[in-house]
Amino acid sequence: MAINIQEILHPSDSSQIKWEKVNYNFDQILANGGGPIGQKGLKGNPGSVGQTGAKGQKGAQGLKGETGTTTSRWETIAINPSNDVNPEYVILKPKLENDNYHPIIFLGDQTYDNVNGNNGQLDLRSTLVIGKHAQGGSNFSDELVTFWHGQVSGTNDNVGITLVSEEDVDNNGDPFVRYKLAETFGPTNTAQTVEFSLGTDKFSIGNDGFGTDAYFIGANSTFKLPESIIGSPEAGMIRYYANQFWGAVADGIGNTTWTPFCMSPCGGGGFSGTITLDPVDDIVVNYDGSLYGNSIEITNGEDVEVDVNGDPWTGAVATTTNATSATTNSTAATTVAQTIEFDGLSWNPSSGVSSDAASGSFLYLIDGVAGQLLNSSLVSAPSWLTFNTYSGGANNNRAEFTVSENTGTNQRTGTITITHPGNSNVTENVGIIQVGANATTQATAATTQATSATTQATAATTQATAATTQATAATTLPEYTVGMANLSVANGLEGTSAQYTWAENGPGVVTFNPSSLVEGTHTYSLVLNIPSGYSNAGEQLIVQDTAVGSPQYKISYDANGGTGSGIGSGNTGGAGLTVANNPFTRTGYTFDVWNTSYMGTGTSYNPGATPPTSAFTGSDGIYDELQLYARWSANMTPATTQSSSGSGSGSGTLAMNHTVQNSSYISGSIMYRNGFGIMMTTTVSPYQTQYICAVPGTITGSSGTYVPPQLLITNLSTLCSGN
After folding, report:
1. Quick one: which of 629, 656, 628 has its CA closest to 641?
2. What is the DSSP secondary-structure string of 497-512?
3. What phi and psi, each to the nearest 5 degrees, are found at residue 394?
4. Is 530 a residue whose pLDDT tops 60?
5. Each residue of 21-44: pLDDT tens digit?
6. pLDDT for residue 563
7. Parallel, antiparallel, or unpaired: how do β-strands 244-250 and 385-392 relate?
8. Do residues 430 and 342 touch, judged by C-beta distance below 8 A?
9. What is the rounded end-to-end Cα distance, in angstroms, of the chain?
10. CA distance 412 to 419
11. How far apart are alpha carbons 52 and 50 in whole angstroms?
């Protein structure tokens, strides 16, 4: 019973009345069980569970939990190159799992029967195996894979190509299997042109040890070769060049040269200097063209001068291609003349070549016929001359050489001597002069040239022809050759302008292609216009060289919730790029590290690190790209003590529900007192959230001081008991 002293005492009461009122009310308190507070009694038994209270209001939605584990053997990888809200597509990959089994996908195994426990075909080891799917029970479809393009622009036609397998029987009645890649059309079945292109550096057909036959089926089939400028062939190659087909032929001593095919009408129409054979029979001849096992006889018993067609020599160039026949009456016999002819010298015999290192060439004919080639054993020259190639052409053969630099002040002279392949007694000489450094050519060129005209052949016809050829060579303009251009293309970064140098010597550049460096080793072509002063003036010459374009790399940066600028579109360059410092900011967060995943589950790189080139798996134009995302940790302050509600004094002891969220890629640990008054320790894994029952004000770091900054602790303001 409670009393209010102010209500029972009144200022007008006398002292006696006041004491009487106090005594009376005190007696009433005692009569009603009042009095001083006694000792605390024993704890009573728990009461019965009360009725369930009314359902509270719906709380705020919690943080999204991490993706749980699954027993599926497939991993779904979300791809979001544009950083949209939702991923643009996903990549499905089979997991390797801890058992290290390498997954193999087998589609269309008709022998597999899971109902009856038949595992089907098990001896195939390809990552992807595709068989024929069933079509109406046991009927198989011939179709294996279809590459579907879809609707062709501007039409209603759908187009694709399908790989099918089918069985057939050859002409001998033997069965075989044919794999065919054919066009596939949609419902309209309109004929559309479909092209299948292979863009690899080399395409091989065949099976070693068995051989391969290639067939072109259909009356309208063709096989087209482009204009080829390959200079160094492999034996067996075929090319189309200068409006003519050529074959690469090996001579058996290590040399392989391009030889033109004889085009119809063969002989008399293939190229200049050939004759027509009528009737078309085999002719067996000696190396010099004479009849095998016989000699050619001249009916009048005297020397006869003839041109390359066999017609009487008049001093003029032969214009006919009719073959001449010689009688075989036994009078006086003579051997066909064996000749060596020079032409198209790239230097002026009277003035010589410069003292600088340079290239040179000349044309030559053996017995007046193109195709007979020289080799190093048949050519002698001064030591400062090095021969590079002896190539064949339609009308002439060409020898190309390099002249080393003359560092002396005096000129030097030499003689190039060619020995006939079929007769070592037949030789031909041509002189060459190289001026000294800062000196002029000595006036001996004419004498040297005249001396070199001496022919060691025994036939008078050979001597006359050689002298005429020598005189003509003195006035013939040199030919501008590929070696004179001396093209050199510098290596550099892919996508940058190709830098090249060349010895101009007069010609002007028409085109240089490609103008930018291509990744990897690539061939670059310089097209030149040959000016006057050369025998091939007015023609265009293609000069080539190879260069290496090194890959370009790019590191792109995503603020991942932060703001600011400073990196722009990223840093680019060659191999060895370093990761930039972080220019972004995020309120309430501290930058941790760069990561290849916006969730932090990829590879981390600190500023200044050098990622390996294998990490640049993306693509942005010419760049191999590495995308990095900023990773942040929430800024935290030390936990403060909170008092619980209710009567009493001092720190509260009621436990409350809390969430502990880790926003970093490293784990964090805390200590706290639970609802039973016991100190607990818990560790939160990266990017995970845990619930704890803790007394406010008791939460600290595991060392007993500050909570780790990456842990965000939220009091849910609801009572709890236990841990």
Report:
1. 656
2. BPPEE---SS-EEEEE
3. -70, -40
4. yes
5. 676 666 666 555 555 566 676 777
6. 87
7. unpaired
8. yes
9. 42
10. 23
11. 6
**Exposure string over 77-98, b if 16+ CB within 10 A, otherwise e:** eeeeeeeeeeeeeeeeeeeeee
Rg (CA), the chain: 49
pTM, entire model: 0.31
Helix (H) or strand (E) holding 461: helix 460-475
Cα distance between residue 431 and residue 445, in whole Å: 8
Q: Provide long-range contacts, Cβ within 8 A and 24+ apart, for 379-386.
A: 379/416, 379/417, 379/418, 379/419, 380/416, 380/417, 380/419, 381/414, 381/415, 381/416, 381/417, 382/412, 382/414, 382/415, 382/432, 384/412, 384/414, 384/434, 385/414, 385/416, 385/432
Segment 493-516, tens digit of pLDDT: 888 888 888 776 567 776 777 888
pLDDT at residue 188, rounded to an integer: 53
| Strand spans (E) along 404-519 | 412-420, 423-434, 488-489, 492-493, 500-501, 508-513
CA 159 → CA 151, 155, 235, distances in Å?
6, 11, 41
Measured between alpha carbons, how far is 719 from 721 in angstroms, rounded to an integer? 7
Q: What tokens appear for 685 in the block?
A: 């894994």
Amino acid in position 93: K
Token readout for 328 is: 């075989």
Give Cβ neighbours of residue 682 (< 8 Å, ≥ 6 apart).
660, 669, 670, 672, 690, 692
DSSP 312: B
What integer is the mean pLDDT of 56-71?
72
Segment 117-173, tens digit of pLDDT: 888 888 777 888 887 765 445 555 677 788 888 878 878 777 888 888 888 888 888
Q: Is the pLDDT of residue 332 over 70?
A: no
Cross-strand pairs, 359:
402
Collapsing DSSP states into helix, strand and coil, what is residue 226? coil
d(C-alpha 422, C-alpha 242), whole Å? 31
Q: What are phi and psi of 262, to 5 degrees?
A: -80, 110
* CB distance 503 to 485 below 8 Å: yes
Pairwise CA distance, residues 459 & 336, whole Å: 9
How far apart CA 257 and CA 391 sit, in angstroms, is: 6
* Average pLDDT across the chain, whole number: 74
| Token pair in block for residue 171 | 């002409």
